[in-house]
Amino acid sequence: MANYTLTYDEGVQGFPSFYSYYPDWMIGMNNYFYTFKGGNLYRHNVNESRNTFYSQWWTQIGTPLEAFKPSTLQSVLNTSPLENKLFKTLNLEGDDAWAATIETDIQDSGFIDSSYFEKKEQSWFAFVRNEGLGSTPAELPEFALRSVNGIGNSTTVSIVGQTSTINFATTIQIGNILSVGDYFYFLSATNQPIYAGNVTAINTDLRRGINNVVIDTSTVGTTPIPSNVETFLFIKNSIAESHGVLGHYAVFNLTYSENTKVELFAVESEVMKSFP
Predict the structure, then answer these.
(1) Which H/E stretch holds residue 57?
(2) How many helices (H) and strands (E) does the chain have?
(3) What are the residue ranges of CATH 2.40.10 in the chain?
(4) Coil/strand/helix, residue 98
(5) Is CATH 2.40.10 what the domain over 140-235 is classified as, yes or no?
């Protein structure tokens, strides 16, 4: 277990922060905070590199044990705790964007990369993405929570290298909901969704008897399509078309990976009630 330093704030009468440095002794004097480490005295909050402690001394002895550590923050969104909700967005009131992950009592795959945030009216705004947990785009418990659409039975499946073409009868309507980049699945003999690949092309010309979907099977986690598949389905790309994360409450974790000064004043989320 890693060592850390816990701080107490008299203003809030609580312990708001954990720090990565672990001194031998500490003392406050003349409005400065000092710590001792390995027989050396250090004054804090005077260097430009934030979240970097004792770096000069550790470099001198060749063991950089106190390297830079990113800033992290954890809190909870818990408005109307008895209602099941969709957490759609995060809005950060501060001077820079943070990376974010979100977990609920139902889902634990919400995330926002720091590059996804856009600055709007001096705040940082981004949609919550929903990503699968494992090597495949979605795990079994998530299928009831995701935007899943079925197509129907195929007539033939043609496989050339890492490309598969699934042909459907002209009476099957593939529809315009399916798009390039979506995740394509087939149902196993036990009615379990199996990931087959990502859609690369949709070809429909019913007068010429063309009605097929082409997928790329080179992605890690794909399974070859057997010859006796009855039903195919697809899931929209969750990064491109986010549905948010579902739950009664949401625990969010923010991470700031720069060693510069940053201020964060408030975290907000656009939340809507989920209707089954």
Answers:
(1) helix 55-61
(2) 1, 24
(3) 140-235
(4) coil
(5) yes
Measure the CA–CA gap between 197 and 216, rounded to whole angstroms: 5
Per-residue CA distances from 250 to 14, 59, 67, 87, 162 (Å): 23, 41, 31, 8, 39
Q: Please tell me what DSSP assigns to residue 237.
A: -
Q: What is residue 163's three-state secondary structure?
A: strand
> Residues with Cβ < 8 Å from 258, sequence gap 6 or more?
50, 96
Q: Give bridge partners of residue 255 from the DSSP assignment.
A: 72, 99
Give pLDDT, residue 64.
45
Measured distance CA(110)–CA(245) in Å, rounded: 6
Task: Classify residue 126 as exposed, middle or buried by CB count within 10 Å of its CB (0-12, 13-18, 19+).
Answer: buried
In 3D space, the residue among 162, 146, 120, 155 whose CA is nearest the CA of residue 242 turns out to be 146
Are 243 and 130 spatial neighbours (Cβ–Cβ below 8 Å)? yes
Residue 186, classed as helix, strand or coil, is strand
Report the alpha-carbon distance of residue 179 to residue 149 in Å, rounded.
12
Fold of 71-131+242-273: Jelly Rolls (2.60.120)
The mean predicted confidence, pLDDT, of the chain is 83
Query: Could you give the 3-state DSSP secondary structure of residue 206?
Result: helix
**Given 3-state DSSP classes, what are the helix, strand and coil percentages for the chain, each rounded to the nearest 5?**
5, 45, 50
* Residues of each domain in the chain carrying CATH 2.60.120.260: 71-131+242-273
Q: What is the separation of C-alpha 74 from the centre of its chain, rounded to a whole number of angstroms? A: 15
Read off the pLDDT band of 55 (50, 70, 90): low
Q: Which two tokens stand for residue 47?
A: 């260097």
Q: How far apart are CA 105 and CA 203, in angstroms?
A: 41
Could you tell me the pLDDT band of residue 223, with boundaries at 50, 70 and 90?
confident
